[in-house]
């Protein structure tokens, strides 16, 4: 009898593997490694027929070159910058993602972060909680009506589009910058395209990031980009930490040029306690304490979203193990 295929879940998801076993259990053994770093995979992943990876670890060239018979790597999420796609392609291993599992959740989070900043909710709560200032709206002046204000989206993919529709529902004017979006997306959604990032930045009251991390987008929002933004505007990042230079965002807050920044993602997660942004955010005497919102890479999360990425990742593994082509290949 031939050995059953083995599907390895590298990180993030552990026992009970109810979804994975329900979908794969009749044709494969499923093992969760619970790794918190790539080094923890050594000697445990080489014989995998398929791999389901999340965002706690990286799969680099050294690991991929040790794979003996892998037929698919699924990044169970939207972003796939933690997988060496080139190395996998050289080995003939397709890399796929799950591009639609958290669309609603991330868009909802981006809008929620925008609202808590633009309506002064975070600032007032933060100050009143520590008995700073008077018990009145005057602490947050000036706050402007959202209807008619401009919501600028960088990256008009699935999540950016979902955020655009939500912002439109609030009566906001929506513009976007995405050189890879097909012509006509603006017409179909009733939003406006901008041909350069600079043009979008200087026109937006809120800038919301919805692009992948690539060499092109690394630190796309830097000091120069923040200087191009409207004085008193807001920045939201629910995409990838590295698309925003966190220190540039901090400097924008310190100078007063940015009225607020909401960051669900950072370049290093979790960040070090002595990172200047984190130290400022935790310091009640620093303007970042009231004007910066930080979440622990949680914008994707809902119970339904977690189920989606596990189910869709498992279903893609099943396709490949049964000899069918994978879906959503990104390499």
Number-wise, the strands total 12
Mean pLDDT: 96
Global outline:
globular
Structural class designation = alpha/beta
Please specify the SSE layout and strand pairing.
Elements: E1 6-9, H1 18-24, E2 29-32, E3 50-53, H2 61-65, E4 73-75, H3 85-90, E5 95-97, H4 103-118, H5 121-129, E6 150-154, H6 158-169, E7 173-177, H7 185-189, E8 192-193, H8 197-203, E9 206-209, H9 223-228, E10 233-237, H10 246-255, E11 258-263, H11 276-281, H12 288-291, E12 292-294, H13 303-321
Parallel strand pairs: 1-2, 1-3, 3-4, 4-5, 6-7, 6-9, 7-8, 9-10, 10-11, 11-12
Helix pairs in contact: 1-13, 4-6
Walk me through the structure:
The protein has 331 residues and is α/β, with parallel strands linked by helices. 34% of the residues lie in helices and 15% in strands. It is built from 13 helices and twelve strands. Strands 8-7-6-9-10-11-12 form a seven-stranded parallel beta sheet, sandwiched between helices. The protein has a five-stranded parallel beta sheet with strand order 2-1-3-4-5. The mean pLDDT is 96.
